[in-house]
Amino acid sequence: xxxxxxxxxxxxxxxxxxxxxxxxxxxxxxxxxxxxxxxxxxxxxxxxxxxxxxxxxxxxxxxxxxxxxxxxxxxxxxxxxxxxxxxxxxxxxxxxxxxxxxxxxxxxxxxxxxxxxxxxxxxxxxxxxxxxxxxxxxxxxxxx
Length: 144
Prior knowledge:
Layout: E1 9-10, H1 11-18, H2 22-30, E2 37-38, E3 45-47, H3 49-63, H4 68-80, H5 85-127, H6 133-136
Antiparallel strand pairs: 1-3, 2-3
Helix pairs in contact: 3-4, 4-5
């Protein structure tokens, strides 16, 4: 063990460094994603290098849209497979699924975008006197 390997950080230091709330860290602890030690003096949470590394992975996974359940599975695999190959295989599977989800969201957004552009064009045509209220599919008077 090299000097500094046993360094610990408090909940406020870790939350500040990673830009998360202490509440988030406590929630991650409750889910088993982090497991800080407790100070003998005052029971304060003390985060190790391992906790920092796990938090970094969790936050990266969240940024990619991975669920906390998936992240827990990946972190648990890290603990049980020193070669990390199974963890990497599973990460690739989860990542491929997430890419499919993102591709579907993009397709849906493209459809919504085109619908909005088409509607915008009808509104402009109405303002220019080139379309009727019926073409807008909007109730424009008090009778509808």
